[in-house]
Amino acid sequence: MKSKVGLVDLVTKYILKQKGKKIRPLLVLLSSKISGEINERTYRGAVLVELLHTATLVHDDVVDNADKRRGFPSINAIWKNKIAVLMGDYLLSRGLMIAVEGNDFDFLKIMTGTVKRMSEGELLQIQKTRKLDINEETYFKIIADKTASLFETCCEIGARSSSENPGFHIAMRKYGENLGIAFQIKDDILDYEGSAKLFGKPIGGDI
């Protein structure tokens, strides 16, 4: 993750101090282990999804105007929005470069579709929030796109890294979708009933 730009290295080191749960790369590893052995391709997939996830968190804090992330001041709170947006772009590009350099073009195809869905999910949420116009069907569409799509991708990438069975890929993708939806529902409940101390960030921003 070294860069010739000192500011990039400074912000990267700050991000690495904020240790998250690493659920998404763990899903890649576990999905690979179910059908075979964890290998170099699995590790590349795990790094790819973690870099993408971190990039989305940096961007989300700008969108939500959040000043806390995992108990630390957010990137935008310290370095302002311009640098936060550019750092998110940088992290995403580094993840995509890993896929290209490893010739993991199937990962790249899956991931670009996921980024599209996540962006559309966030935009749909903003649109519906402004109009105060949301029903159950729309809610599930939003969380399927903005959250569950990456869980799907983690499980499919892990499965693809150790298995050539298309049926297994589909099954793991479906499992990831259901897990991601359940994860987001729980997150939304905590956002409504939890505390900033528990979350390490301001609550109520996603309601």
Strand and helix layout:
Layout: H1 6-17, H2 23-35, H3 40-64, E1 68-69, E2 72-73, H4 75-101, H5 105-131, H6 136-162, H7 166-193, H8 196-199
Antiparallel strand pairs: 1-2
Helix pairs in contact: 2-3, 2-6, 3-4, 3-6, 5-6, 6-7
How would you characterize the overall build of this protein?
With 207 residues, the chain is mostly helical. It has one domain: Orthogonal Bundle (Farnesyl Diphosphate Synthase), CATH 1.10.600. It contains eight helices and two strands. Strands 1-2 form a two-stranded antiparallel ribbon. A hairpin with a 2-residue loop joins β1 and β2. The longest helix is centred in the last third of the chain and has 28 residues. The radius of gyration is 17 Å and the shape is globular.
Structure summary:
With about 210 residues, the chain is mostly helical. The chain contains 8 helices and 2 strands, in the order αααββααααα. The radius of gyration is 17 Å and the shape is globular.
